[in-house]
Amino acid sequence: MDRFLRAVEVAASLMLGVVTLITFVNVVLRYGFNSALMDSFDLTRMAQGLALAWGIAVATHRREHITIDGLWGLMGPRGKRMMDAVARLITALFLLGLTLAMAQRAARNMAGNLSTAELGLQIWGFHAAMTLGIALAGVAALLGLRSQRKRPVA
Description:
The protein is mainly alpha-helical. It has one domain. The chain contains 4 helices and no strands. The two termini are 23 Å apart.
């Protein structure tokens, strides 16, 4: 599992690198040569979406997302466990609902043959990959809820 998560992290990092590279090259072309990369806006948008979706999956699994623990710190061990369980459940429900909405969007894009303006790249494939990342985040939240009973409170 750690190898898979590491691969996902590397892929998400590479997508952020792609966003940076495309943006840099596009700026140089625009201001230096009065030209631009074809579909640079769409490609950076899709790469950033992939990085975020898959990064959310890893952060949810590892419990490394941003938290505010002011109230949590005042509770006893049982209260902390309950608050963690409620937070994980809400997170899982939200992510699974988002997965459904994103899957519907990908299906509509596929049915409508939606593509980028200049290169004609099909957008539904990008959306399907983002949907898979969010779905894995929802599953990670549910698995974390199940395994939380075995884990001591920090």
